[in-house]
Amino acid sequence: MAATSPTTLSISSSSTLVDAKAPRQPTATSPQCVTIPNLPPPPVSSQTRPWKTTAYCRKIARNVMAMATGEAPAEVAATELPEFVKTVQEAWDKVEDKYAVTSLAIAGVVALWGSTGMISAIDRLPLIPGALEIVGISYTGWFAYKNLIFKPDREALIQKIRDIYQEIIGSS
Fold first, then answer.
1. CA–CA separation, 56 vs 43, rounded Å?
2. Would you give the distance in Å from CA 134 to the centre of its chain?
């Protein structure tokens, strides 16, 4: 049965019970006892959400530093946005047909999801992935031979890429 002590839990092979309690035996004298270590204490509420605690401490430290320098405490994190977010907001404000852009974005996500499913289905077939890998390696070799090995071909490829880039971006 089981005998408990304040620090360890011991299980012995004795089957006698006295007053519905297991007999107490010291763990060092009984060779058939198994000792289980104590569980760690339950986490404190501040440990369950360390990011909130860290953010709060940073806010306090920023305010203390501002007060030490004589400046008014400013909410920097709430007022400043990353440069990427500002750029996206400016681009979104310039869009005239937001419904069409949103529809295209949703259609793109659905197409990406569908193509991912199709590729994973093809990847499960027995011989197809190996054959497609050979086709990919062959095409890469042909492209490198045709466009990258000789200098005039490389220059023509670079010029073609620049022309397509200017066509997409437009000349300013």
1. 19
2. 33
pLDDT the model gives residue 82:
85
Q: How far apart are CA 128 and CA 121, in angstroms?
A: 10
How many CB atoms are closer than 10 A to CB 8? Answer: 14
CB neighbour list of residue 35: distance below 8 Å, 6 or more residues apart: 8, 9, 10, 27
HSE, CB side, 13 Å, CA atoms: give it for residue 58: 9
Closest CA to 63 of 48, 76, 51: 76
Residue 147's pLDDT is 94
pLDDT in tens, 21-75: 555 555 555 557 667 777 777 666 555 555 666 666 666 666 655 555 666 555 5
> Which residue in 73, 76, 71, 101 sits closest to 88, CA to CA?
101
Output DSSP code: residue 43.
P
- Residue 132: how many CA atoms within 13 Å on its side-chain side? 9
Alpha-carbon 103 to chain mean position: 27
Beta-sheet strands, E only, within 77-136: none
Q: How many other CB atoms are there within 10 angstroms of residue 3's CB atom?
A: 19
Query: Could you read off the pLDDT of 101-132 as tens digits, one per residue?
Result: 999 999 999 999 999 999 999 889 888 889 99
